[in-house]
Amino acid sequence: MKKFKLVFAAIIITKIFLIPSCFPPFEPKEPTGDPDSLISDVITPELGLPEPEIPVFPISEQAVMATLFQQYAAEFRALSYQAFNLARLMLERDLRDQSVNSPRAIIVDIDETLLDNSPHSAKCIQNQTSYPAYWDEWCELGIAKPMPGAVEFLQLARNYGVSIYYITNRREHLKEATMRNMRELGFPMIKDRYMMFRTDEAGKEKRRMAVARNHHITMLIGDNLNDFSDVFEHKSIEQRAAVTDSLRHEFGRRFIVLPNAMYGEWEGALYNYNFA
Fold first, then answer.
1. Alpha-carbon span 99 to 132, nearest angstrom
2. Considering the entire predicted model, what is its pTM?
């Protein structure tokens, strides 16, 4: 098997992270260990081979490909456009429903749904660390770019008279910088009453219910299944898959999902929510 190296990353990485000096470019280090010796733990028992020693890399190194995908893959942009194109179709279908009497609202997450935070991930890779390192510093800069198609869709929804509620797990002390960033990008309804930041618990159900009390929820948009319902929270890999299957008819209809390979509840499930 040909050895796989991260040399390509060093070649293109300097173009990826052309951002302010506090988030400078980085060059991934060559991993130690022989990739040729790695054998899947699924295949190994079937072949009767001894279990190989797997080299341990810094957790930040594991985010290199995900960060490159988000910043460089045209497929990533296509998936984002696809999500918001589908959201438009579902919005227009919902607007034709004359049985709806309550004001319509869309509930939407912010990070990796509307704002691209991959430069923060790059900073962590460079310094071999991970969230929450540099997170506040990054948010305060207020220079995150929009996800492809996000601004246009929400502007359209607002033009139809639909209210936009931004439910995020960013902390309250980041509210001003976040609102400034989003306002400059052209997101609609960037006002205190529509910006619902995390105050105590990470779960979003109470905030969603607060909006639902006086609105017809046309759709929810997010990159994490927890952005849609609390039934996904703190579940195992198998449980998350089972709940997803049981709600399969909601995806692409009321639940619009954005891709995020850098982090999320899926990662927590892999570690059994033990990040020590």
1. 45
2. 0.80
Q: How far is it, in rounded angstroms, from Cα 260 to Cα 256?
A: 13
Domain edges within the chain = 61-270
Cis geometry, peptide bond prior to residue 132 (ω within 30 degrees of 0): yes
Average pLDDT of the chain? 86
**DSSP characters over 37-92:** G---TTHHHHHTPPPPPPPP--GGGGGHHHHHHHHH-HHHHHHHHHHHHHHHHHHH
Kindly report, residue by residue over 84-125, the tens digit of the pLDDT: 999 999 999 999 999 999 999 999 999 999 999 999 999 999
Structure confidence at residue 200 (pLDDT): 85
Domain 61-270, CATH class in plain words: alpha beta
The pairs formed by 157-161 with CB atoms below 8 angstroms and a separation of 24 or more are: 157/91, 157/106, 157/188, 158/188, 158/189, 160/91, 160/95, 160/104, 161/104
Strand partners, 256: 221
Q: What span, in angstroms and rounded, lies between the C-alpha atoms of 204 and 29?
A: 38
Q: What integer pLDDT is reported at residue 48 of this predicted model? A: 60
- The residue among 254 and 273 whose pLDDT is bigger is 254
If 0-12 CB within 10 Å is exposed, 13-18 middle and 19+ buried, where does residue 200 land? exposed
* Cα atoms found within 13 Å of the Cα of residue 124, Cβ hemisphere only: 26
Q: Is the pLDDT score of 8 beyond 70?
A: no
Asked if residue 108 lies in contact with residue 217, where contact means CB atoms within 8 angstroms, the answer is no
